[in-house]
Amino acid sequence: GGRTGRGGPGTRVSSRGASPHRFPTPTMSSPGFALARTLEGHSKSVAAVKFSPDGSRVASASADKTVRLWRVADGAQLCVLVGHERGCSDVAWTGCGRYLASASDDKNLHLWDVDPSSPHHGKTVRVFAGHTSHVFCCDVNSACGANNVLASGSVDETVRLWDLRSGTCVNVLPAHSDPVTGVKFSPDGAVLATCSYDGITRLWSVATGACLRTIVLGMGGGGRVSSRGTDHLGGGREVLSDSVVGQNRVIPGFVGNAVDDVGGFADGVVINGGAGWGDGGARNAPIGCVVPSPNGRYLLASTLDAAGSLRLWDAVGGRVVRSYAGRRGSRYCAFAAFADADGTSYAVCGSEDGSVLAWDLRTGEVAQRIPGSDAAWQNARQDAKAAREEAKAGKRPRGGEEGGDGADGEGGATGS
After folding, report:
1. Would 302 disulfide with which of 243, 288, 375, 384, CB 3.0-4.6 Å?
2. What number of CA atoms fall less than 13 Å from residue 115's CA on the CB side?
3. Residue 15 CB neighbours (<10 A)
4. What is the pLDDT of residue 284?
5. What confidence score (pLDDT) does residue 273 get?
6. pLDDT at 222
7. Do the Cβ atoms of 173 and 162 come closer than 8 Å?
8. pLDDT value at 106 more than 60
């Protein structure tokens, strides 16, 4: 209680101006997350871990060039998917759970048959080639009747939409002016959200490829939203729209060839379109991931800055309705997620100190901090030099690096 009051937490001042009276601060409910399994097998850093639609399996992508499948019930390794020539950055399940897509630093995506009853189990059934640099992220449109679309984001600054059945590219979106760090379909499959190191999030029509909205996040300050209205998240829960708001603008249907084009719309300093990382210029905070809420109204976005910010955006109104503090996140792209436990909704995200944090989605307070290994942060610090070199080459890492120079002169960067 008292999170925004002048008297401080748990303080109440009487109407007569008497001395404050202290009342016990309500106990914050915790989701109660606890370690259930440790999955060991990868020989290099792990970039992404995704549950199958039915929750019975887990797929992991690694800088060791493999994708591995695990059984949730006992942690057993089910199979190793081998075929990529460089490290793997992301994975995405189809809605039926029979196929798995993977993105790699070899510039390709693979579609794997992961149906245990199939004679082609563990084999590549499609290869999607077309990106001109590392493929950093992917997602499958798993809405009923529409799970034949694969989206991919790349260091080449484009987003591609693929037909899963034929393996052909059906659209190339000139999405951003820096590496694309996240692609995520809305729950109904009609809209694709993308984000990038250019500090911009865009919403696209899957059917037409048209840019529906451009969301620009400024670097500094912010005012307060004084209205006391409520907005509904999935499940009918309410989020009070009284929070610190960063400098931001929503530009309906706008897309520019360079981020400089939006300079007139955004407060604060807007990045230099196309400029390389490490050039010392002031820039918008890079966005590491974006996740639509279950009802599609909100976007949970993590930014790479000194504060390791995690924000909940109203995608329609174009404002930040809640900010979640307490994590480290200035170097690596960490996945974020919505979670529900015992009737309470949470925002969950990893931190560069090796821990995982869960915030009460409504209040923004830290509900649980799951400690991690100190080695995680030590390894991150040891990777700092390699990460800076990768950044100058145009790619930011998700966790750890895979060494070596490719034909294009860029080293891979995967892991988390």
Report:
1. 288
2. 13
3. 5
4. 76
5. 31
6. 31
7. no
8. yes
Other Cβ atoms closer than 10 A to 410: 18
pLDDT tens sequence across 189-236: 999 999 999 989 999 999 999 999 888 765 433 322 222 223 322 333
What's the confidence (pLDDT) of residue 239?
Answer: 34
Q: What is the pTM of this model?
A: 0.75
With helix as H, strand as E and coil as C, how does the chain read? CCCCCCCCCCEECCCCCCCCEECCCCCCCCCCCCCCCCCCCCCCCEEEEEECCCCCEEEEEECCCEEEEEECCCCCEEEEEECCCCCEEEEEECCCCCEEEEEECCCEEEEEECCCCCCCCCCEEEEEECCCCCEEEEEECCCCCCCCEEEEEECCCCEEEEECCCCCEEEEECCCCCCEEEEEECCCCCEEEEEECCCEEEEEECCCCCEEEEEEECCCCCCECCCCCEEECHHHCEEECCCECCCEEEEECCCCCCHHHHCCCCCCCCCCCCCCCCCCCCCCCCEEEEEECCCCCEEEEEECECCCCEEEEECCCCEEEEEECCCCECCCCCCEEEEEECCEEEEEEECCCCCEEEEECCCCCEEEEECCCHHHHHHHHHCHHHHHHHHHCCCCCCCEECCCCCCCCCCCEECC
According to the model, what pLDDT value does residue 412 have?
A: 38
Tallying the residues shown for the chain, one arrives at: 416
Residues 6+ apart with CB under 8 A from 17: none
63 band by pLDDT with thresholds 50, 70 and 90: very high
Query: 282 is written with which tokens?
Result: 């002031």
pLDDT tens for each residue of 352-368:
888 999 999 999 999 99
Nearest in space to 262 (alpha carbons), one of 202, 330, 179: 202
**pLDDT score for 134:** 96
